[in-house]
Amino acid sequence: EADIAPRDAALIARRDAVLGSSYRLQYRRPVHFVRGEGMWLYDPDGRAYLDFYNNVPSLGHCHPEVNAAMAAQAGRISANTRYLEPQLVDYAERLVATFPGELDRVVFTCTGSESNDLALRIARLVNGNEGVIVSSYAYHGTSAAVAMVSPNLGEAVQLSPSLRMVDLPGPAGVPEAQAAAFFEAQVRAAIKDLNRRGIGVAALLIDSIFSSDGVWVDPPGFIAGAVAAVREAGGLFIADEVQPGFGRTGTHMWGFERHGIAPDLATLGKPMGNGFPIGAVVGRHAAMDRFGATARYSNTFAGNTVGIATADAVLTILQRDRILENALAMGARLNAGLEQLAGRLAGIRAVRHAGLFFGIDIGLEGMAAAQRRAMALTIVNALRDDGVLISTTGANEDTLKVRPPLICEAAHVDRFLQALQDALGAAAP
Ligand code: PMP
Questions:
Q1: Where is the signal peptide, in residue numbers (predicted)?
Q2: Of the residues 49, 64, 135, 283, which has the maximum number of CB atoms within 10 A of its CB?
Protein backbone atom coordinates (compact mmCIF):
# COMPACT_ATOMS: atom_id res chain seq x y z
CA GLU A 1 0.00 0.00 0.00
CA ALA A 2 1.11 3.47 -0.91
CA ASP A 3 1.16 4.89 2.62
CA ILE A 4 3.47 2.24 4.07
CA ALA A 5 6.90 3.77 4.70
CA PRO A 6 9.66 2.33 2.43
CA ARG A 7 11.59 1.24 5.55
CA ASP A 8 8.57 -0.80 6.72
CA ALA A 9 7.77 -2.15 3.23
CA ALA A 10 11.27 -3.61 2.96
CA LEU A 11 11.00 -5.22 6.39
CA ILE A 12 7.56 -6.68 5.56
CA ALA A 13 8.97 -8.28 2.40
CA ARG A 14 11.91 -9.83 4.28
CA ARG A 15 9.59 -10.96 7.05
CA ASP A 16 7.18 -12.66 4.63
CA ALA A 17 10.07 -14.39 2.90
CA VAL A 18 11.64 -15.85 6.02
CA LEU A 19 8.67 -16.31 8.38
CA GLY A 20 6.08 -17.39 5.83
CA SER A 21 2.41 -16.59 5.58
CA SER A 22 1.19 -18.11 8.86
CA TYR A 23 2.60 -15.03 10.60
CA ARG A 24 0.02 -12.26 10.27
CA LEU A 25 0.54 -8.57 10.84
CA GLN A 26 -2.07 -6.43 12.54
CA TYR A 27 -3.48 -3.30 10.84
CA ARG A 28 -3.53 -2.18 7.21
CA ARG A 29 -0.45 -0.11 7.96
CA PRO A 30 1.50 -2.41 10.27
CA VAL A 31 3.07 -0.81 13.30
CA HIS A 32 6.71 -0.97 14.28
CA PHE A 33 7.55 -0.45 17.93
CA VAL A 34 10.93 0.03 19.54
CA ARG A 35 9.98 0.82 23.13
CA GLY A 36 7.17 0.38 25.63
CA GLU A 37 6.37 2.12 28.87
CA GLY A 38 3.20 1.74 30.94
CA MET A 39 0.19 2.30 28.66
CA TRP A 40 2.31 3.45 25.71
CA LEU A 41 4.25 1.97 22.81
CA TYR A 42 6.65 4.06 20.73
CA ASP A 43 7.57 3.75 17.05
CA PRO A 44 11.05 4.49 15.63
CA ASP A 45 10.09 8.15 15.09
CA GLY A 46 9.09 8.52 18.74
CA ARG A 47 5.35 8.61 18.04
CA ALA A 48 3.36 7.30 21.03
CA TYR A 49 0.52 4.77 20.68
CA LEU A 50 -1.97 4.18 23.47
CA ASP A 51 -2.22 0.43 24.06
CA PHE A 52 -5.85 -0.54 24.64
CA TYR A 53 -5.37 -4.07 23.43
CA ASN A 54 -2.59 -5.92 25.22
CA ASN A 55 -3.74 -7.98 28.17
CA VAL A 56 -0.33 -9.60 28.68
CA PRO A 57 1.44 -6.59 30.23
CA SER A 58 -1.41 -6.09 32.69
CA LEU A 59 0.79 -3.95 34.90
CA GLY A 60 1.94 -1.90 31.93
CA HIS A 61 4.74 -2.35 29.42
CA CYS A 62 8.24 -2.84 30.84
CA HIS A 63 7.18 -2.49 34.47
CA PRO A 64 10.45 -1.45 36.19
CA GLU A 65 9.87 -3.48 39.34
CA VAL A 66 8.93 -6.64 37.43
CA ASN A 67 11.94 -6.19 35.17
CA ALA A 68 14.25 -5.63 38.14
CA ALA A 69 13.06 -8.88 39.75
CA MET A 70 13.53 -10.73 36.47
CA ALA A 71 17.02 -9.31 35.86
CA ALA A 72 18.16 -9.87 39.44
CA GLN A 73 17.17 -13.53 39.27
CA ALA A 74 18.74 -13.96 35.83
CA GLY A 75 21.94 -12.63 37.38
CA ARG A 76 21.83 -15.17 40.22
CA ILE A 77 20.66 -18.47 38.70
CA SER A 78 18.09 -19.82 36.27
CA ALA A 79 17.42 -23.37 37.42
CA ASN A 80 14.71 -25.90 36.73
CA THR A 81 12.17 -27.43 39.13
CA ARG A 82 14.25 -30.51 39.98
CA TYR A 83 16.33 -28.61 42.49
CA LEU A 84 15.24 -27.31 45.86
CA GLU A 85 14.25 -23.71 45.37
CA PRO A 86 12.32 -21.98 48.16
CA GLN A 87 11.06 -19.24 45.86
CA LEU A 88 9.24 -21.81 43.70
CA VAL A 89 7.42 -23.17 46.73
CA ASP A 90 6.73 -19.70 48.15
CA TYR A 91 5.18 -18.52 44.90
CA ALA A 92 3.19 -21.76 44.46
CA GLU A 93 1.73 -21.28 47.95
CA ARG A 94 0.92 -17.62 47.30
CA LEU A 95 -0.70 -18.39 43.95
CA VAL A 96 -2.81 -21.27 45.28
CA ALA A 97 -3.94 -19.04 48.17
CA THR A 98 -5.72 -16.78 45.67
CA PHE A 99 -7.99 -19.72 44.70
CA PRO A 100 -10.93 -21.26 46.57
CA GLY A 101 -9.67 -23.75 49.17
CA GLU A 102 -10.38 -26.88 47.14
CA LEU A 103 -7.96 -25.81 44.41
CA ASP A 104 -4.78 -26.55 46.26
CA ARG A 105 -2.22 -27.86 43.77
CA VAL A 106 -0.29 -26.15 40.99
CA VAL A 107 1.80 -27.32 38.06
CA PHE A 108 3.77 -24.78 36.01
CA THR A 109 3.83 -24.37 32.23
CA CYS A 110 5.24 -21.80 29.79
CA THR A 111 2.08 -20.81 27.86
CA GLY A 112 -1.70 -20.86 27.98
CA SER A 113 -1.71 -23.56 25.30
CA GLU A 114 0.49 -25.80 27.43
CA SER A 115 -1.80 -25.19 30.38
CA ASN A 116 -4.88 -26.27 28.45
CA ASP A 117 -3.03 -29.19 26.88
CA LEU A 118 -2.00 -30.45 30.31
CA ALA A 119 -5.48 -29.86 31.78
CA LEU A 120 -7.00 -32.02 29.04
CA ARG A 121 -4.46 -34.76 29.73
CA ILE A 122 -5.31 -34.64 33.43
CA ALA A 123 -9.06 -34.70 32.81
CA ARG A 124 -8.84 -37.61 30.38
CA LEU A 125 -6.59 -39.58 32.70
CA VAL A 126 -8.79 -38.96 35.74
CA ASN A 127 -12.11 -40.02 34.23
CA GLY A 128 -11.05 -42.15 31.28
CA ASN A 129 -13.32 -40.23 28.93
CA GLU A 130 -12.27 -38.51 25.73
CA GLY A 131 -14.96 -35.93 24.89
CA VAL A 132 -14.48 -32.18 25.24
CA ILE A 133 -17.20 -29.52 25.15
CA VAL A 134 -16.33 -25.94 24.17
CA SER A 135 -18.19 -22.83 22.99
CA SER A 136 -18.75 -22.51 19.26
CA TYR A 137 -15.97 -19.97 18.52
CA ALA A 138 -13.61 -20.93 21.31
CA TYR A 139 -9.86 -20.59 21.08
CA HIS A 140 -7.80 -22.60 23.54
CA GLY A 141 -4.34 -22.66 22.02
CA THR A 142 -1.79 -23.88 19.61
CA SER A 143 -0.67 -27.45 20.48
CA ALA A 144 -2.01 -30.33 18.37
CA ALA A 145 -4.47 -31.36 21.10
CA VAL A 146 -5.85 -27.93 21.96
CA ALA A 147 -5.96 -26.68 18.37
CA MET A 148 -8.28 -29.65 17.76
CA VAL A 149 -10.69 -28.20 20.35
CA SER A 150 -10.42 -24.61 19.03
CA PRO A 151 -13.20 -24.03 16.46
CA ASN A 152 -12.04 -20.41 16.21
CA LEU A 153 -9.15 -21.62 14.03
CA GLY A 154 -11.69 -22.39 11.29
CA GLU A 155 -10.68 -24.57 8.40
CA ALA A 156 -7.02 -24.39 9.36
CA VAL A 157 -7.44 -27.30 11.76
CA GLN A 158 -9.22 -30.61 11.76
CA LEU A 159 -11.40 -30.57 14.87
CA SER A 160 -11.32 -33.57 17.17
CA PRO A 161 -14.06 -36.16 16.54
CA SER A 162 -14.61 -36.13 20.30
CA LEU A 163 -15.24 -32.37 20.34
CA ARG A 164 -18.74 -30.99 20.82
CA MET A 165 -19.45 -27.28 20.35
CA VAL A 166 -22.24 -25.51 22.18
CA ASP A 167 -23.96 -22.24 21.34
CA LEU A 168 -23.83 -19.39 23.82
CA PRO A 169 -27.12 -17.79 24.85
CA GLY A 170 -26.05 -14.22 24.02
CA PRO A 171 -25.13 -14.61 20.34
CA ALA A 172 -28.18 -16.90 19.91
CA GLY A 173 -30.38 -13.98 21.03
CA VAL A 174 -31.64 -15.78 24.14
CA PRO A 175 -32.83 -13.35 26.87
CA GLU A 176 -30.75 -13.28 30.06
CA ALA A 177 -33.54 -14.83 32.15
CA GLN A 178 -33.34 -17.99 30.01
CA ALA A 179 -29.56 -17.95 29.45
CA ALA A 180 -28.65 -20.56 32.09
CA ALA A 181 -31.34 -23.00 30.97
CA PHE A 182 -30.41 -22.56 27.31
CA PHE A 183 -26.71 -23.16 27.94
CA GLU A 184 -27.39 -26.16 30.16
CA ALA A 185 -29.65 -27.68 27.51
CA GLN A 186 -26.91 -27.30 24.87
CA VAL A 187 -24.38 -29.00 27.14
CA ARG A 188 -26.77 -31.80 28.12
CA ALA A 189 -27.42 -32.54 24.45
CA ALA A 190 -23.66 -32.65 23.80
CA ILE A 191 -23.12 -35.04 26.74
CA LYS A 192 -25.94 -37.29 25.53
CA ASP A 193 -24.39 -37.51 22.10
CA LEU A 194 -20.90 -38.20 23.50
CA ASN A 195 -22.29 -40.94 25.74
CA ARG A 196 -24.35 -42.50 22.96
CA ARG A 197 -21.18 -42.86 20.90
CA GLY A 198 -19.19 -44.31 23.81
CA ILE A 199 -16.84 -41.30 23.92
CA GLY A 200 -17.95 -39.90 27.28
CA VAL A 201 -17.24 -36.41 28.52
CA ALA A 202 -13.76 -35.66 29.84
CA ALA A 203 -14.25 -31.93 30.28
CA LEU A 204 -16.20 -28.77 29.71
CA LEU A 205 -13.46 -26.28 28.75
CA ILE A 206 -14.51 -22.64 28.79
CA ASP A 207 -13.14 -19.14 29.07
CA SER A 208 -15.69 -17.41 31.28
CA ILE A 209 -15.35 -14.11 29.36
CA PHE A 210 -15.91 -16.00 26.07
CA SER A 211 -13.43 -13.60 24.50
CA SER A 212 -13.08 -15.19 21.08
CA ASP A 213 -16.84 -15.73 20.87
CA GLY A 214 -17.26 -11.94 21.11
CA VAL A 215 -17.09 -11.21 24.89
CA TRP A 216 -20.26 -12.71 26.39
CA VAL A 217 -19.92 -12.19 30.11
CA ASP A 218 -23.50 -11.99 31.35
CA PRO A 219 -25.47 -12.93 33.25
CA PRO A 220 -22.98 -14.03 35.92
CA GLY A 221 -23.70 -17.63 36.90
CA PHE A 222 -25.23 -18.71 33.59
CA ILE A 223 -22.71 -21.55 33.28
CA ALA A 224 -23.70 -23.20 36.59
CA GLY A 225 -26.26 -25.71 35.31
CA ALA A 226 -23.98 -26.75 32.46
CA VAL A 227 -21.10 -27.36 34.86
CA ALA A 228 -23.35 -29.46 37.10
CA ALA A 229 -24.46 -31.53 34.11
CA VAL A 230 -20.86 -32.23 33.12
CA ARG A 231 -19.95 -33.29 36.64
CA GLU A 232 -22.99 -35.60 36.83
CA ALA A 233 -21.66 -37.27 33.68
CA GLY A 234 -18.21 -37.76 35.24
CA GLY A 235 -16.50 -34.87 33.44
CA LEU A 236 -14.40 -32.06 34.85
CA PHE A 237 -14.94 -28.33 34.53
CA ILE A 238 -11.78 -26.65 33.24
CA ALA A 239 -11.82 -22.86 33.57
CA ASP A 240 -9.57 -21.32 30.94
CA GLU A 241 -8.33 -18.28 32.87
CA VAL A 242 -5.83 -17.17 30.23
CA GLN A 243 -8.03 -14.14 29.38
CA PRO A 244 -10.08 -13.41 32.53
CA GLY A 245 -7.48 -14.39 35.11
CA PHE A 246 -5.29 -12.16 37.29
CA GLY A 247 -7.97 -9.52 37.84
CA ARG A 248 -9.10 -8.62 34.33
CA THR A 249 -12.76 -8.57 35.47
CA GLY A 250 -12.00 -6.12 38.27
CA THR A 251 -14.41 -7.80 40.68
CA HIS A 252 -12.45 -11.02 41.07
CA MET A 253 -8.99 -12.44 40.67
CA TRP A 254 -10.41 -15.33 38.60
CA GLY A 255 -13.15 -15.29 35.97
CA PHE A 256 -14.92 -18.36 37.36
CA GLU A 257 -15.46 -16.51 40.66
CA ARG A 258 -17.61 -13.98 38.81
CA HIS A 259 -19.90 -16.91 37.95
CA GLY A 260 -19.82 -18.11 41.55
CA ILE A 261 -18.55 -21.55 40.66
CA ALA A 262 -15.21 -23.25 41.34
CA PRO A 263 -13.67 -25.39 38.58
CA ASP A 264 -11.84 -28.68 38.92
CA LEU A 265 -8.89 -27.27 37.00
CA ALA A 266 -7.97 -23.69 36.09
CA THR A 267 -5.50 -22.86 33.33
CA LEU A 268 -3.39 -19.70 33.52
CA GLY A 269 -1.13 -17.82 31.14
CA LYS A 270 -0.78 -14.43 29.47
CA PRO A 271 -0.55 -11.80 32.28
CA MET A 272 1.02 -14.15 34.83
CA GLY A 273 4.53 -12.87 34.03
CA ASN A 274 3.54 -9.48 32.55
CA GLY A 275 5.28 -10.62 29.34
CA PHE A 276 7.61 -13.34 30.58
CA PRO A 277 6.29 -16.68 29.26
CA ILE A 278 4.86 -18.49 32.28
CA GLY A 279 1.58 -20.32 32.84
CA ALA A 280 0.09 -22.88 35.21
CA VAL A 281 -2.61 -25.41 35.90
CA VAL A 282 -4.17 -25.02 39.33
CA GLY A 283 -6.46 -27.83 40.44
CA ARG A 284 -8.10 -29.91 43.10
CA HIS A 285 -5.70 -32.40 44.64
CA ALA A 286 -7.93 -35.37 43.86
CA ALA A 287 -7.42 -34.82 40.14
CA MET A 288 -3.88 -33.47 40.30
CA ASP A 289 -2.56 -36.26 42.52
CA ARG A 290 -4.22 -38.91 40.39
CA PHE A 291 -2.31 -37.47 37.45
CA GLY A 292 0.92 -37.17 39.43
CA ALA A 293 0.74 -40.81 40.55
CA THR A 294 0.52 -42.13 36.98
CA ALA A 295 2.12 -39.58 34.71
CA ARG A 296 5.55 -38.06 34.73
CA TYR A 297 5.58 -34.31 34.20
CA SER A 298 8.81 -32.62 33.42
CA ASN A 299 9.02 -29.32 31.60
CA THR A 300 12.46 -27.91 30.84
CA PHE A 301 11.55 -24.25 31.19
CA ALA A 302 8.32 -24.15 33.17
CA GLY A 303 8.73 -23.03 36.76
CA ASN A 304 12.33 -21.96 36.20
CA THR A 305 13.62 -19.55 38.80
CA VAL A 306 13.62 -16.50 36.51
CA GLY A 307 9.98 -17.05 35.54
CA ILE A 308 8.99 -17.64 39.15
CA ALA A 309 10.79 -14.49 40.36
CA THR A 310 9.01 -12.52 37.64
CA ALA A 311 5.56 -13.98 38.37
CA ASP A 312 6.13 -13.43 42.08
CA ALA A 313 6.81 -9.73 41.47
CA VAL A 314 3.67 -9.52 39.31
CA LEU A 315 1.48 -11.05 42.01
CA THR A 316 2.99 -8.78 44.67
CA ILE A 317 2.28 -5.64 42.65
CA LEU A 318 -1.21 -6.83 41.65
CA GLN A 319 -2.13 -7.19 45.32
CA ARG A 320 -0.15 -4.28 46.78
CA ASP A 321 -1.21 -1.64 44.24
CA ARG A 322 -4.90 -2.61 44.32
CA ILE A 323 -4.90 -3.27 40.60
CA LEU A 324 -8.32 -4.98 40.64
CA GLU A 325 -9.95 -1.93 42.20
CA ASN A 326 -8.48 0.19 39.45
CA ALA A 327 -9.69 -2.23 36.76
CA LEU A 328 -13.18 -2.07 38.21
CA ALA A 329 -13.25 1.74 38.43
CA MET A 330 -11.74 2.31 34.98
CA GLY A 331 -14.02 -0.36 33.50
CA ALA A 332 -17.03 1.50 34.90
CA ARG A 333 -15.75 4.81 33.52
CA LEU A 334 -15.16 3.33 30.09
CA ASN A 335 -18.55 1.65 30.10
CA ALA A 336 -20.33 4.88 31.01
CA GLY A 337 -18.48 6.72 28.24
CA LEU A 338 -19.35 4.03 25.71
CA GLU A 339 -23.03 4.03 26.70
CA GLN A 340 -23.05 7.79 26.20
CA LEU A 341 -21.37 7.49 22.80
CA ALA A 342 -23.82 4.78 21.77
CA GLY A 343 -26.70 7.07 22.67
CA ARG A 344 -25.33 9.97 20.65
CA LEU A 345 -23.75 8.34 17.60
CA ALA A 346 -24.84 5.61 15.22
CA GLY A 347 -22.55 2.62 14.85
CA ILE A 348 -22.45 1.04 18.30
CA ARG A 349 -25.05 -1.74 18.54
CA ALA A 350 -24.15 -3.09 21.97
CA VAL A 351 -21.49 -2.85 24.67
CA ARG A 352 -20.57 -5.77 26.93
CA HIS A 353 -17.88 -5.83 29.56
CA ALA A 354 -16.47 -7.27 32.74
CA GLY A 355 -13.96 -4.95 34.35
CA LEU A 356 -11.49 -3.92 31.66
CA PHE A 357 -12.49 -6.47 29.00
CA PHE A 358 -14.91 -4.96 26.48
CA GLY A 359 -16.78 -6.20 23.45
CA ILE A 360 -18.33 -3.40 21.40
CA ASP A 361 -20.66 -4.56 18.60
CA ILE A 362 -20.37 -2.39 15.50
CA GLY A 363 -22.87 -1.78 12.70
CA LEU A 364 -25.74 0.34 11.49
CA GLU A 365 -29.41 -0.56 11.24
CA GLY A 366 -30.00 -3.02 8.40
CA MET A 367 -26.31 -3.67 7.64
CA ALA A 368 -25.34 -7.14 6.42
CA ALA A 369 -22.72 -9.13 8.35
CA ALA A 370 -19.97 -8.42 5.82
CA GLN A 371 -20.61 -4.67 6.01
CA ARG A 372 -20.52 -4.73 9.81
CA ARG A 373 -17.23 -6.59 9.70
CA ALA A 374 -15.83 -4.05 7.22
CA MET A 375 -17.00 -1.16 9.41
CA ALA A 376 -15.37 -2.67 12.52
CA LEU A 377 -12.11 -3.14 10.58
CA THR A 378 -12.27 0.46 9.36
CA ILE A 379 -12.65 1.66 12.94
CA VAL A 380 -9.74 -0.46 14.19
CA ASN A 381 -7.50 0.95 11.45
CA ALA A 382 -8.69 4.53 11.97
CA LEU A 383 -7.84 4.19 15.66
CA ARG A 384 -4.41 2.82 14.77
CA ASP A 385 -3.79 5.83 12.52
CA ASP A 386 -4.88 8.04 15.42
CA GLY A 387 -2.40 6.26 17.72
CA VAL A 388 -4.71 3.92 19.65
CA LEU A 389 -4.45 0.12 19.52
CA ILE A 390 -7.41 -2.29 19.66
CA SER A 391 -8.67 -5.24 17.55
CA THR A 392 -11.81 -7.24 16.72
CA THR A 393 -13.37 -10.49 17.90
CA GLY A 394 -16.49 -12.63 17.56
CA ALA A 395 -17.93 -15.03 15.01
CA ASN A 396 -18.29 -12.23 12.47
CA GLU A 397 -15.30 -10.15 13.67
CA ASP A 398 -17.62 -7.17 13.98
CA THR A 399 -17.07 -6.73 17.71
CA LEU A 400 -14.30 -4.40 18.87
CA LYS A 401 -12.05 -6.15 21.38
CA VAL A 402 -10.78 -3.69 23.97
CA ARG A 403 -8.58 -4.81 26.88
CA PRO A 404 -6.11 -2.20 28.07
CA PRO A 405 -3.47 -2.93 30.69
CA LEU A 406 -5.12 -2.88 34.12
CA ILE A 407 -3.12 0.17 35.24
CA CYS A 408 -4.93 2.51 32.84
CA GLU A 409 -6.04 5.87 34.20
CA ALA A 410 -8.99 8.20 33.58
CA ALA A 411 -7.04 10.29 31.05
CA HIS A 412 -6.29 7.13 28.99
CA VAL A 413 -9.95 6.10 29.05
CA ASP A 414 -10.98 9.57 27.90
CA ARG A 415 -8.35 9.59 25.14
CA PHE A 416 -9.69 6.26 23.89
CA LEU A 417 -13.30 7.48 23.95
CA GLN A 418 -12.36 10.59 21.96
CA ALA A 419 -10.51 8.49 19.39
CA LEU A 420 -13.43 6.08 19.08
CA GLN A 421 -15.88 8.94 18.64
CA ASP A 422 -13.75 10.33 15.79
CA ALA A 423 -13.34 6.90 14.21
CA LEU A 424 -17.09 6.20 14.36
CA GLY A 425 -17.74 9.48 12.56
CA ALA A 426 -15.23 8.58 9.87
CA ALA A 427 -16.44 4.98 9.47
CA ALA A 428 -20.15 5.69 8.94
CA PRO A 429 -20.83 5.18 5.22
N1 PMP B 1 -6.79 -19.78 25.97
C2 PMP B 1 -7.31 -18.60 25.63
C3 PMP B 1 -8.70 -18.25 26.08
C4 PMP B 1 -6.56 -17.69 24.86
O5 PMP B 1 -7.09 -16.52 24.51
C6 PMP B 1 -5.26 -18.06 24.46
C7 PMP B 1 -4.38 -17.13 23.64
N8 PMP B 1 -4.98 -16.12 22.94
C9 PMP B 1 -4.76 -19.30 24.83
C10 PMP B 1 -5.55 -20.12 25.60
C11 PMP B 1 -3.39 -19.75 24.42
O12 PMP B 1 -2.40 -19.11 25.11
P13 PMP B 1 -0.91 -19.04 24.53
O14 PMP B 1 -0.95 -18.22 23.29
O15 PMP B 1 -0.11 -18.44 25.64
O16 PMP B 1 -0.46 -20.44 24.26
A1: none
A2: 283
The mean pLDDT of the chain is 96
Instruction: Identify whether residues 102 and 225 lie together within a single domain.
Output: yes
**114 shares its domain with 39:** no
Q: Number of folded domains in the chain?
A: 2
pLDDT higher than threshold 70 for residue 2: no
**Ligand 1 pocket, 208 CB below 6 A?**
no
Domain assignment present for residue 383? The answer is: yes
- Does the beta carbon of 141 lie inside 6 Å of ligand 1? yes
112 alpha carbon – ligand 1 mean position (Å): 5
Check residue 1 and give its pLDDT. Answer: 52
Using the mean position of ligand 1's atoms as its centre, give its distance from the Cα of residue 142 in Å. Answer: 8
| Residues 227-242: b if buried by 16+ CB within 10 A, e if exposed | bebbeebebbbbbbbb
269 & 316 share domain:
yes
Q: What one-character-per-residue DSSP string does 381-394 give?
A: HHHHHTTEE-EEES
* 244/331 same-domain check: no
58: containing domain: 31-62+322-427
Question: Does the C-beta of 391 come closer than 6 Å to ligand 1?
Answer: no
Q: Could you tell me if residue 26 is inside a domain? A: no
> Nearest residue CA, atom 12 of ligand 1?
112
Residue 216 pLDDT more than 90? Answer: yes
Residue of 124, 106, 105, 107 whose CA lies nearest to 235? 124
pLDDT mean over 385-402: 97
- The secondary structure of residue 52, as a DSSP letter, is -
**112 CB less than 6 Å from ligand 1?**
yes
Asked if the ipTM is above 0.95, the reply is yes
Average pLDDT over residues 12-36: 94
Query: 113: Cβ below 6 Å to ligand 1?
Result: yes
The amino acid present at 231, given as its one-letter code, is: R
Q: Is residue 237 domain-shared with residue 366, that is, in the same domain?
A: no
Residues 413 and 282 in one domain: no
CA distance 104 to 288: 9
The two beta strands, 391-393 and 163-166, are unpaired
Cβ(240) to ligand 1 under 6 A?
yes
Q: Are residues 246 and 331 in the same domain?
A: no
* CA-based nearest residue to 223, from 280, 266, 166, 269: 166
Q: Whose CA is nearest to atom 10 of ligand 1?
A: 140
Q: Which residues contact 316 (CB under 8 A, 6 or more apart)?
A: none
The amino acid that residue 315 corresponds to is L
- How far is the centre of ligand 1, averaged over its atoms, from the C-alpha of 282 (Å)? 16
